Structures are given as C-alpha cells and as structure tokens.
UniProtKB/TrEMBL annotation:
ABC transporter domain span: 8-250
Gene Ontology terms, MF aspect: ATP binding; ATP hydrolysis activity
Organism: Undibacterium parvum
Gene transcribed to yield this protein: urtD
Family matches, as CDD domains: ABC_Mj1267_LivG_branched (cd03219)
Protein name per UniProt: Urea ABC transporter ATP-binding protein UrtD
Sorted UniProt keywords: ATP-binding, Nucleotide-binding, Transport
GO CC annotation: plasma membrane
PANTHER family linked: CONSERVED COMPONENT OF ABC TRANSPORTER FOR NATURAL AMINO ACIDS-RELATED (PTHR45772), HIGH-AFFINITY BRANCHED-CHAIN AMINO ACID TRANSPORT ATP-BINDING PROTEIN (PTHR45772:SF8)
Pfam families, per database record: ABC_tran, BCA_ABC_TP_C
Length: 250
C-alpha cells in the first residue's frame, strides 16, 4: 500500500468550469509531517486545488480523502475546517484593533473543539501554548502591541500563529512570503523549517529562492495545466526538461 501514512490523498481529480478543465486528472498525496511546496505558472490550477481540498470548489470527478477515512467530497467548507484543515490566504487577516496576544487567544476561542464560554479564562496549559507560539512566530516581547501596528511580515506570522493555535492536522499556505522583505522571507523559511515534521503543510509559492530554502529536505510538486507535471526534490524538478520547457516557454 503506497498511500500508507498520508494525511491527504487527491486521486484523479478533475474540475471543469464550463468545459474548461482547471484541474485535469490531478493526483497528489501529502504524508504526515511533510512540508510540501507547490509551484507552477499562473493558471496551473494551484488555487483550484486548494479550493477542492477546503471544499470551496467541488471536483467534477476523482476523489479527495483527508486521512484514510474522511471523504472531502461529502463535506462542506465549514465541516472540512472543523475536521482539521486550516487555510491561510495570501493577504493577512488579523484583528487589527486587538493585541498580538489577544489575536492568538481569539484564535483559540474560535476553535470549535473548545467549549464556548462567556467567562473564558486561559488555563495554564493554554497560556503556555500561546507563549510557545509567540516565540515560534518571532513575536515574543511584542504580545501587547496592536496587531494593526505590525509590519506586513509580522502580520503574516501572527496569522500562521493563529492557525497553529487551532492545531489543524493539515495547513495550507497560499503565497506566505508575497510582499515580504528579504529578511522577513528568510525568517519565514526558518519558521516553516521548524514546523517540518511536527505539522503537515502544503505551501503554494512563487518565490523560488524561498521554495529552495524550504524544499532542501522535502518535495516539490510542479503543477501545469491542471495536473502534476513533475515531483521530487527542488534539484530534480529544476533539471526536469518538461519543467524547464514550461517555465521558459520553449
Ligand atoms: P493558479 O492558482 O495556479 O494560478 P487557478 O487554479 O487560479 O490557477 O486557475 C486555473 C485555471 O482555471 C485558470 O485558467 C483559471 O482562469 C481557471 N478558473 C479558475 N477558477 C475558475 C472559475 N471559477 N471559472 C472559470 N474558470 C476558472
């Protein structure tokens, strides 16, 4: 069984929009604890693939499983989020008026597995978790600052921290370093490398320098015309004739 131990199985997925195939027999698996990079030219189907995983778009054919048993085709977006798939969109969406600490606390309160309470008090375990995530996202010492005052990069890290508060089993990141400075991009690569092995993460990104940094120990999938054109280490896909052809347009 080659699929043993995967967190996500996309098998032969096709998505048609008025006859146009945004995804065309796409097959892709993500292993537990893997940090997988997804690259590919504009229009390759990267966003559509994320939309299928999160239930925003339904596949016309093929199957999408989360773990061994959860059929994503049978669930809506909210159910999929509750099942443990967390997505971060390209633009940061933090609560600007609230402090960094409160943003992390709010993320915890929004977690549907935590019993809602009007008199929510953090347990020491929850407080400890916030401290741990503050360090990870490089915002310890800044917890009292209003999120609206953070730099673009810091807001992105905060949002990653908010996702982590909810302990998703699979994390989808859409262009996490878009608009970041070089220094912020380098720190984001460090952050993601620290998460490797502890979380299952799929990252869609155009910044090849960044992809090279986070793909050193992992796999890259190159999408083209709705399916996986090439998959392997960064070095393997970079040397793949088909990939060169697509990127150089020969
Ligand atoms: P990427 O994220 O790799 O740039 P997308 O998944 O956004 O690619 O798009 C793949 C293709 O599907 C594109 O040609 C796009 O125009 C088309 N597409 C995406 N969503 C729709 C839609 N809702 N209706 C029609 N065409 C769409």
């Amino acid at each position: 069984d080659t699929t043993h131990g995967a967190i996500l199985y996309l098998d032969d997925i096709t998505v048609s929009f008025d006859g146009f195939k945004a995804l065309n027999k796409l097959t892709l698996d993500i292993s537990v604890g893997e940090l997988r990079c997804i690259i590919g030219p504009n229009g390759a189907g990267k966003t559509t693939m994320m939309d299928v995983i999160t239930g925003k778009t339904k596949a016309s054919s093929g199957s999408a499983f989360f773990g061994q048993t959860i059929d994503l085709a049978k669930m809506n977006e909210v159910q999929i989020a509750h099942a443990g798939i967390g997505r971060k969109f390209q633009r940061p969406t933090v609560f600007e008026q609230h402090s960094v600490f409160e943003n992390l606390e709010l993320a915890m309160k929004m977690d549907k597995r935590v019993k809602p309470s009007l008199f929510f008090r953090l347990t020491s375990e929850q407080g400890g978790k916030i401290e741990e995530i503050l360090k990870l996202i490089r915002l310890n010492g800044q917890e009292a600052r209003a999120a609206g005052l953070l730099s673009h990069g810091q807001k992105q890290w905060l949002e990653i921290g908010m996702l982590l508060m909810q302990e998703p089993e699979l994390i989808l990141l859409d262009e996490p370093v878009a608009g970041m400075s070089d220094a912020e991009t380098a720190r984001t690569a460090e952050l993601l490398n620290e998460l490797r092995g502890k979380h299952s993460i799929m990252v869609v990104e155009h910044d090849m320098g960044f992809v090279t940094e986070i793909a050193r120990q992992g796999k890259v999938s190159v999408l083209h015309e709705g399916s996986v054109l090439s998959e392997g280490t960064m070095q393997q896909v970079q040397n793949d004739e088909r990939v060169i052809e697509v990127y150089l347009g020969r």
